[in-house]
Specification:
The complex is a heterodimer of chains A (126) and B (131). Chain A is mainly α and 126 residues long. Chain A has 5 helices and no strands. The chains are: A mainly alpha (126), B mainly alpha (131).
Chain lengths: 126, 131
């Protein structure tokens, strides 16, 4: 669906087009409300002394579990994209760059998946 | 081919630090710090799922003097990256790109992130009844 010029324009040194840029902005916009919600709730939980039972009860509420999962997903996606930019800027040499990018993405997505699993575990068990 | 002494473009250290460049690299530094914060969040949630003992240990660790220092840094990094991120989004739609506006919004971003960091910590201490 793209013109010949549109395709060719994506073929700079990064060999890809606008997807990364667009996803970085989209996740940034989503993190404005989600990030503020997270900070506000951490402060609220600190007020309740964050005892394990208190945290379970908090996460047991449908809206909290849902927003926390969304926050984690969008946060880790934004982090993957940001770290990719940093690595592409500072790690030179095709092999070192490919390995760093793979490790960064693999570790961050694994931690993101682990976080979602943790929230589900607490939500379903609460 | 024999090496040629071509003139190189001047590198970073030749330039006087300016608010625009300083805040730009601070955006990247706070972003990398927040990536470490995301790792910390993953640990915290995993500890909560692992069990009450692990969660209490995680909370004690975060509430220790070093933990508080790290969390304070994370709070500032969050609000700086947040405020400057909004500034970036404004640039993306073509707003605020004049030099005078750039300096003004730069100072504003620093003030706003410091104020929000302070407000968050005061709110947290007040909520815990330790104020």
């Amino acid at each position: 669906m793209r013109s010949a010029l549109g395709r060719a324009r994506g073929l700079g040194s990064s060999h890809e087009g606008v997807h990364h840029w667009r996803a970085q902005r989209l996740t940034a916009v989503l993190l404005v409300p989600l990030g503020l919600w997270f900070i506000a709730n951490v402060v609220y939980l600190i007020g309740l002394d964050i005892a394990p039972s208190v945290f379970r009860a908090w996460i047991g509420e449908h809206g909290n579990a849902l927003l926390l999962i969304l926050f984690v997903l969008v946060l880790f996606h934004h982090t993957v994209l940001g770290m990719q930019t940093v690595i592409e800027d500072y790690v030179h040499g095709p092999a070192a760059k490919a390995v760093s990018l793979f490790l960064s993405k693999a570790i961050l997505w694994a931690l993101g998946a682990s976080s979602v699993l943790a929230v589900l575990h607490l939500y379903l068990g609460a | 081919m024999a090496p040629v002494n071509r003139p190189l473009s001047p590198h970073l250290q030749i330039y006087r630090p300016q608010i625009t460049s300083t805040l730009s690299i601070l955006h990247r530094l706070t972003g990398v710090a927040l990536a470490a914060g995301a790792v910390l969040l993953a640990y915290w949630l995993a500890a909560a799922a692992y069990g009450p003992g692990a969660f209490e240990r995680a909370n004690d660790l975060l509430a220790s003097p070093v933990g508080r220092l790290v969390l304070f840094g994370m709070t500032f990094s969050f609000f700086y990256h947040f405020a400057n991120g909004v500034r970036h989004l404004a640039w993306d739609i073509g707003l605020g790109l004049q030099m005078k506006t750039l300096r003004l919004t730069g100072i504003l971003v620093v003030l706003v992130s410091l104020a929000l960091t302070g407000a968050t910590w005061i709110a947290a201490y007040a909520a815990a009844g330790k104020l």
